[in-house]
Amino acid sequence: MTRNSAVALILTLPLLVACGTPQERCISRNTSEYRNVSRLLAEVEGNLARGYAWEERQIVRDRLTHCRSYSRDRDGRVYPTMVPCWRDYVETQRYRVPIDPAVETRKRDNLANRQKALAGHAESSVRACRAAYPEDGEVTAQAPS
């Protein structure tokens, strides 16, 4: 990584963190566990429906390509040239993995129970975030004075 790209990354990081409205950030922060459990539950249910799971592995291969090189002519001037060279690249392969249906069923049941337990907290957190950070078009319920 060059110095310029590192500086650019450091300068844009606060902008990426600040994405979203305050309400969206509040909801995201307070429902992350519920969303993770829901994602895992969907994955396990998909595994049971298919009868196998998917996994990924990274494979490094090399490829013949053209690289920039610099040469000098008889007068000593430097000019760029292209020469053949080998470069590594990473390929991601997806492959099937056998599952034990009994284990996946227990996993599904445990995740479903955990999701139900977290649902109440997630709903109350969303209501609290919407009340604390109302957005345009949302009406908050206020007690009459």
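(the above was protein one; protein two follows)
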Amino acid sequence: MTEKLSVAKIPMHVPPMEEVQKVLSDGLSKNFADVAVSVVECPDLTQPPFHLSASGLGGNQRLVDIGGPPFLFPLAQRDKKFTFRQIAELAESKDPFMLGAGAGPAHVVGVNSEMMNTIKLQADGSSINKGYISKVDKQTGGCILEKMPCDEFCLMGNFLVCDGAPGKVLEVKASRRTGEEDFSRCLKMSLRSHYGDKPVGLGGVFLIEKGKAHLHIMSDFSETPITKESQGFDLRDEHFHCFNQQGQGGHYHWDTTPEEVEYRAYFVLPEYVYRIDKPTNKVPWEQ
């Protein structure tokens, strides 16, 4: 973790929230029966049902994209370890609240795991870490959900970084899915179809208030070289992990009960994206 990491700071296009409100409303309405998008004051996200480490999503919002799937190929690069404070400094955040998805600290947990990150770093060096990891139960094949054991992670991460302050957010409600696109992909495609090559980002939190979803937990690292995979290798254009209070969590893919699903989300529009420790290795089939 003393290795000097590469950093690229990329400005984002930040349209008015009211404009994005209409873009998301129009896009989601093609895929959900009931849609309501509003600009509101952020609720207190430390309270149920959110259980996050800071109350808001305001103040110096930026996205960070650390490492990536190439660090798994052909074998996991177990030396790719990061601290949240290290990443916050590289992202030029002086009062960091960090929220998002990534790989848990395998060097501490002992196995690969999915990370649901929510951490507020304090000026005195302490932290409010309410994050979780989920890993595969080797006995049953089920999910084991545990509290984050430390302020570190490995391999990859996709976070919203902000001050955790109150402020205006986009409240997105969508229910009864009628189309093929899952919630996160529909958000992405709505922005892409309207803004084209202009980079517009969303960072925040969503709830599945009703219905069920398909999540995955990556199994432990392979002991033999992996020779194929299907993910991209630069900026990851969507990444959400979920957890609940019933001991479940993992990487969100899609809802499995479209006729009854209900989503509620709160998003902000980050000003920058920081690409940190971009992998330089190529997978075997690209060489």
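Reviewer note on protein two: The CA atoms of residues 11 and 130 lie 30 Å apart.
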